[in-house]
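User: Hand in any protein.

Assistant:
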Amino acid sequence: MKLLKSLAAVIGLCLLVLPCVGCGRKVTEASSLASVIMPDGAPAYYEYLGSIDYSTPVAALVWEQVDGEDEGVNGIQYREVTDFNSITSQTDIPVCLYFYSSSARGSQNLSAGVEDLAQTLAGRVLFIAVDGVEADAVSTAYQVGGYPEFILLNDNARISTFSGIEYEEWNIDDVTQWITDNGYEPDLTMLMR
């Protein structure tokens, strides 16, 4: 274990001065070491994720062990996406982009429902939350017409879109039905864990 910690410290130091491979930016915090040391059994797409960060404008909602909790206590964690193009192009599992506006009223309520969806589809669909105002280049690239909007991708190809502005009234149950209609039935027993 000491060897692993020493190796992690050396890698962390290297990350402070070397560019991040595949993402075209310099890592400036030692906390970004989390993007190098993946949890045991983590899917391959973890190589495109950074540290846990609830304020980043583009974050993957991943079901994993919660730091500081007993072994086996999992929850949805927001991990910074360090290489957006690669994570949306990976073919391990489909990606659902959730575009929202952090300045819009009610975003927190909807985000809680999206977290539940991410939990019930963990390992089958990867949810990525995108603050469309802060990450406007991403919104523009996907031609997002308003917030919230959900885009289901497989190998970076759009499968389907659920656009909230097309409905007078809707809620998270409508989004759940949309994703189910696209072949991804949520496992509601995951909410009991």
